[in-house]
Amino acid sequence: MRNKPHPRRRGSFELARGIWATWWYTVSAVLLFEVFLIAAWASAWGTPAGATEVDPIALILGVVWLAATFWILTAYRRREEQGPLLPRRYLPALAVCAAVAVAMLITTGSWLAGAAFALQPLVILNWPRGVRLRVVVAATAVLLAVAFIERANAATSLDPAAWAVGATFSVILPLASVTSLWWWDVLVAFDRARGVESRLAATQERLRVATDVHDLQGHHLQVIALQLELAEKLMGRDPDAALEQIRAARVSVGEATQGTRDLATRFRTVPLSDEIANARDLLQAAGIAATADAPVDADGAPADVLGPVIRETTTNVLKHGGGRRARLALEARPDGWRYEIVNDRTGDDADGADGSGLEGIGRRVAEAGGTLDVRRDAHEFAVVVRVPGEQER
Question: Are β-strands 43-44 and 336-344 bridged in parallel, bridged antiparallel, or unpaired?
């Protein structure tokens, strides 16, 4: 049997992998724009002779600059809103970029090339909120001004067509890079908001539990205190009445205990609509194409019976199914409720070993007056549970 990761761990891993993959897509987009810039200035595109001439020095300088900007981008991975523009350990990369910009100016003879290679590392620094836009606008304006002056004065010996390509990539690079980083910032903001929402929901639930426990226990303890106080006052002149109050206090203690148990049971019981949704999400996190159908009044079904059934059958699919698809369905019938879970089968589970969980499901369903049906064929496995409604049990 193949070893499979725990579904919950796998779901967390899939989420983390998705965020990490988005980061690499972001970095790859920025680096791709920079590669175009390097290629534009290192290659004399469209020479009169129709040949492509590549300046090896400019190409080497571009590769060094690309590595330095990549190192600066890694600092952006875990940026903080109030963090420094660039941590100290990344300052050498910024110095390398500045040196390459000067060298590129000397090599190509273009001030625009030098300005583009100098400004790009500054654009991808950790600027505060609202400042980055002004930095991009300023950098683009500077590049446009340098391009206009250089073009008007014919201040470069590069082929006009090659220069035009380099100028185009130089001007659009800051905006293209920041747009990619902005998408990453949006993803990080959504991820943080999701975490905050989850913690807030947990806090609200704890406050609700605390309030319910306080109201329940506070009421009963007040009643018990009054009953015992009255019994103490009656003990000397009317022992029978005092004994009656003590018995009443004991009844109040039992009511408080039962109320606490009922409260705990209510909070432990997950609505069946949530059980179905959680089961579907769990299967999808494990790589199974799962669908789920439940009526709008699903929470009226007997959750104490069907809740464990849903969890156990979902676990059974994860452990023994081996397939790629699953379907969960809960529907109301005139005689009660019908729950079905169906998944496809592969050759790996041909032995029919479905785990001991189905035996426990059968016992639980039988105790509730329901039935369990298991259907197997070469390509599909299904579990069907029928249970009476709450009022019929």
Answer: unpaired
Task: Identify whether the C-beta of residue 339 lies closer than 8 Å to the C-beta of residue 298.
Answer: no
Tokens of 391: 């009022």
pLDDT digits (tens, 9 = 90+) for 287-314: 788 899 888 877 778 888 888 888 888 8
Q: What is the DSSP letter of 84?
A: -
Two structure tokens written together for 82: 């109030």
Contacts of 158 (CB under 8 A, 6+ apart): 44, 108, 109, 110, 166
Q: Where are the beta strands (DSSP E) in 334-389?
A: 336-344, 371-376, 380-387
Given this model, what pLDDT does residue 241 score?
87
H-type alpha helices, the chain? 7-42, 56-76, 91-108, 111-123, 131-153, 160-234, 239-268, 272-285, 303-316, 357-367
* Phi, psi for residue 104 in degrees, rounded to 5: -70, -35
- CA atoms of 325 and 283, how far apart (whole Å): 9
Q: Is 303 helix (H, G, I), strand (E, B) or coil?
A: helix
Q: Is 392 helix (H, G, I), strand (E, B) or coil?
A: helix
Closest CA to 33 of 178, 185, 187, 139: 178
Task: Give the model confidence (pLDDT) of 344-363 as tens digits.
Answer: 876 555 444 455 678 888 88
Residues 101/111, Cβ–Cβ less than 8 Å? no
Q: Which tokens sit at 277?
A: 């949704």
Q: What angle do CA 258, 262, 268 make, to 5 degrees?
A: 145
> What's the predicted TM-score (pTM) here?
0.48
Q: What distance in Å separates the CA atoms of residue 256 and residue 237, rounded to the nearest whole number?
A: 30
Q: How far apart are CA 3 and CA 219, in angstroms?
A: 53
Which segments in the chain show pLDDT lower than 70?
1-20, 44-53, 79-83, 154-158, 191, 194-195, 198, 201-202, 205, 264-270, 320-322, 346-356, 390-393
The upper half-sphere exposure of residue 317, i.e. CA atoms within 13 Å in the direction of its Cβ, equals: 32
